[in-house]
Amino acid sequence: QSNYGKAPMDLVAHGDTGCYTMMMFEPNKPLMHNYSGMGLGGATGAGADPFITNKQIVFMGDGTFFHSGSVAIANAITQQQDITFIILENRTTAMTGHQPNPTLEEDIMGNKILSHDIERIARSLIPDAAGPLGTGARETKEVPRARVIRMNPEKRDQYREMLEKVILEEGVKIVIADKECGITFHRRRRREEQAAKKEVGFIREKTYMNVSEEVCEHCLECTTQTGCPGLKHVETDYGQKIQTDFTACVNDGACARIDACPSFEQVIVTRTRPPRLPDEVVDLRGMPDPPNVMADAFTKRDVWRCYMAGVGGMGIGVAGDILVRAGHKDGLHVGFIDKKGLAIRNGGVFSQIQFSKHPMSGSPVMPFGKADLLIGVDALEAARACSPTDYLRVASPKFTHGVVNTGKTPTILTLMGRDDFEPEELAGIIKGQCRPGQFFSFNVGDLCERLLDSKLYANIMMLGVAYQLGFLPLSYKSITWAIRHAVGREFERNYRAFNIGRKIVLRPDLFGVGIRKELETADQAMERKANILKASSIWGKKNAEEYKKMCRETLEQMPALDEAAKRDYVIRLFDAIQWGTLKYGRQYASRIVKTYAQDSAERAFAVTRAVIWNLAKVMMIKDEVYVSMLYTSPEKYKRDRRRFNVNPANGDKIKYVHLNRPEFVLGGKHVKFHWKSRDWQVRVLRHCRWLRALLPTWHSKEKGFREWYTKLVDACDLHEPHDAQKYSLWLEIFRSPEPVTGYRDVRYPKQDAAMQRVAELQHALANGGSDPRSRGTRTVSLSGQVMGTFRGA
Predict the structure, then answer these.
(1) b vs e for 34-59, b when ≥16 Cβ sit within 10 Å of the residue's Cβ?
(2) pLDDT at 497
(3) N or C: which end of the chain has fewer CB within 10 A?
(4) How far apart are CA 342 and CA 19, in angstroms?
(5) Closest by CA position to 627, among listed 669, 589, 677
(6) pLDDT-based confidence at 341, cuts 50/70/90?
(7) What are phi and psi for residue 153, nearest 5 degrees?
(8) What is the C-alpha to C-alpha distance for residues 96 and 63, in angstroms, rounded to an integer?
(9) At a CB cut-off of 8 Å and minimum separation 6, what does 763 contact?
């Protein structure tokens, strides 16, 4: 949809071989409709141009431009075609390992060379383009219109506006997107960080991207628009939310720049002395030598084969490097193959390693089902190595020993909420394709993050597990030597990770990762929330007592609710008081009690549980005042200190920059702006409930949705709970806000859809309880177990 007065149109997008090939995949699938050989994206656009009226765009990298892309551009200009060429200039050949290209001023040896300027070359392709730089071609009847524009896509809003305007123009347009490759940028930043750390022994100041989980609505706009592997799902009191993953997040702020919600924030941690490392309590002394399980690998077949599976960023190449070095050190003949394609987007990677005591001939490619050891740093990629339909199947119950990490690394589709998997289930499948009794799985990823502050050491920890199980035909001395030479300055941390892996085998009971904590009771939750109220203001003590009294009185009227539902209720009653006042809390509580009075234990109080969640969801409108309360919650501060290992007694400090975009209606006009707020500012704003009265149209659509849902609750009639069909319809009515997530423009269409659906359900109720949508196909489970799985934002 154009902002320039033109009707909506379908773009046709072409590409070819390069890092931009990943636009063929989610979440950017619409940006590359076909794939061809290097430089042929432009040729495809040229060939299609005479036969379509669509606007076309062609993506090419700077390496592709020098390879053959300039020829395609020249041809399009000569043929007077209507194509926008977007040249991604990052001055490197990123997809295949950052080889140099002609734009550089130095070769790989550091010698000065003559560099080429893509912009000057592009302008030279335009006939008679002799005007001042930036004016494009001089238009005459003989010379077709053509333009060259250079811009940094980091300037998101200006870049988008420019692209939209340029694509809609006629003729050939050459847009040079001038921005350094993200990988080289972050490598340089990490080197600078490591140099500073080496100088003083720790990092004095570090900025992290964080998600305020209380503010997040789990609308998945951030994952859907960016597909960023630095995001992950986490469980909270309010269901699943999004959070950043320390290991994969590079703090580039892309997730926040889409302006989907105010939950993103920068957390700046400053230290005056080294932080206390939690792994200091793990005693790694006196570990016994492992059994020699792999002794028969060389005696029977004169060869030993290992397959390591993971995704980009897990260090599969580093772990393979260590095994290769150690094998050479032990005097073995070594062959290996690494697959690195799509590594920068969490794509699958593997390493195949082959050892022999005698010189080998032929390729070290793994024969079908002949792996002696399968190391799955990622369970999903390891499962592919067991698939009977996959040509890369390497595991078999005859030969294979298995070591699998059950820590979850979500796929892009998992992040987008369109697919999911359970690593434990995959581990069971893999176990069935390994030798009986020769399989070990553990949540190494999460343990590694807990003990070493990063999942990046999981690859080395997995080698430690494999070694202590006796699955590696290598000496401890050679492995230690190989780790030192493969990782350099990071030796101590990696060496410790290796030995923690050994300890996991010997004493897995010491590492309780993945053990579910005992669920907090309703009384414990009530005391926790009352303490927050008590400290919140000068009236806090009185408010806390009133809150506890309200909880006890109303829970006495709902004795048959299970403990989980009672806990959910007291937490949301606290939220209602925080959002408004004690009066607002009573409004919430009275509606819950009224619903319960009509509900039935036979139906596991399914409707009551739905109203507990969803009435709170619509009543606690996340306006700027309430969001400020959530930003500055004592529980959030406590969680962040634990998450970022901040200890004030150690001199550590934590600061916040909240990335918000407030919106108001003033004088009939919408006013919105970017606001990087500090904590002191939002602490002031959290006390400004009076703004709601001063600005009556503020969040008016959310208020309308609240009034609509509260009327549904007030009109609830469950006098016939034995009628399963009618009860099912009421249950769906009260669940209707569950899919309503996000802020403003993301939220409003979902509100409309929910209201439309409820109108259909009410019509069905009025006509005997038959829902035309579900006739013959739909059932709604009312069991407590199933009800326990629904979790709205």
Answers:
(1) eeeebbbbbbbbbebbeeeeebbbbb
(2) 94
(3) N
(4) 8
(5) 677
(6) low
(7) -65, -10
(8) 11
(9) none
290/154 Cα distance (integer angstroms): 52
Question: Where is pLDDT greater, at 504 or 136?
Answer: 504
Return d(Cα 580, Cα 334) in angstroms, integer.
Answer: 69
Rounded CA separation 654/454 (Å): 19
Quote the CA–CA distance of 236 and 223 in Å, as a whole number: 18
Whether 690 has a pLDDT exceeding 50, the answer reads yes
Q: Which DSSP state fits 453?
A: S
167 near 55, Cβ under 8 Å?
Answer: yes
Average pLDDT score over residue span 326-333: 94
**Nearest CA among 345, 349, 353, 339 for reference residue 380:** 349
Could you give the angle at which helices 522-534 and 563-579 cross, rounded to 10 degrees? 20
CA atoms of 455 and 311, how far apart (whole Å) = 13
- Does 144 or 375 have the greater pLDDT score? 375
Residue 217: phi, psi to the nearest 5?
A: -105, 0
Contact 632, 682 (CB under 8 A): yes
Q: How far apart are CA 352 and CA 355, in angstroms?
A: 10
CB 13 within 8 A of CB 33: yes
What count of residues does the chain have? 793
Beta-bridge partners for 375: 308, 403
Q: Where does the pLDDT of residue 9 fall: very low under 50, low under 70, confident under 90, or very high at 90 and above?
A: confident
H or E segment to which residue 355 belongs: strand 348-356
**Residues contacting 376, CB < 8 A, separation 6+:** 308, 309, 310, 382, 383, 385, 402, 403, 404, 405, 430
The 3-state secondary structure of 635-676, one letter per residue: HHHHHHHHHCCCCHHHCCEEEEEEEECCEEEECCEEEECCEE
Reported pTM: 0.85
Do 314 and 459 meet the contact criterion of CB atoms below 8 Å apart? yes
Residue 723 tokens, joined? 């009628």
Give the pLDDT of residue 790.
Answer: 28
Q: Which residues contact 587 (CB under 8 A, 6 or more apart)?
A: 576, 619
Task: Specify the residue for token string 């799902």.
Answer: 233
Distance, in Å, from the CA atom of 787 to the CA atom of 610, rounded to the nearest integer, reads 8
Q: Where are the beta strands (DSSP E) in 111-171?
A: 146-151
Q: 688: which residues sit within 8 A by CB, 6+ positions away? A: 625
Starting at the earlier edge strand, list the strands of the sheet with 12-14.
Answer: 12-14, 56-61, 83-89, 172-178, 146-151
The stretch 216-231 carries a mean pLDDT of 92
Each residue of 619-666: pLDDT tens digit? 999 999 999 999 999 999 999 999 999 999 899 999 999 998 888 777
Tokens describing residue 61: 């990298």
Spatial separation of the C-alpha atoms in residues 161 and 157, rounded to whole Å? 6
Tell me the per-residue pLDDT of 91-133, one tens digit each, with 9 for 90 and over.
888 777 778 888 888 887 888 888 899 999 999 999 875 444 3
**What's the token pair of residue 598?**
């009509």
The dihedral formed by the CA atoms of 561, 563, 568 and 569, expressed in degrees to the nearest 10: 50
- DSSP 8-state assignment for residue 99: B
Confidence class for position 788, pLDDT limits 50, 70, 90: very low
Q: Which two tokens stand for residue 766?
A: 């009025």
**CA angle at residue 229 from 225 to 233, to 5 degrees?**
85
> Would the pLDDT of 443 be above 80?
yes
For residue 785, what pLDDT band results from cuts at 50, 70 and 90? very low
End-to-end CA distance of the chain: 30
| Helix or strand (DSSP H, E) at 58 | strand 56-61
715 phi/psi in degrees, rounded to 5: -90, 5
**Confidence at residue 789, expressed as pLDDT on a 0 to 100 scale:** 29
Taking alpha carbons only, the member of 6, 71, 12, 82 closest to residue 42 is 71
* 3-class state of residue 472 by DSSP: coil
pLDDT at residue number 791: 30
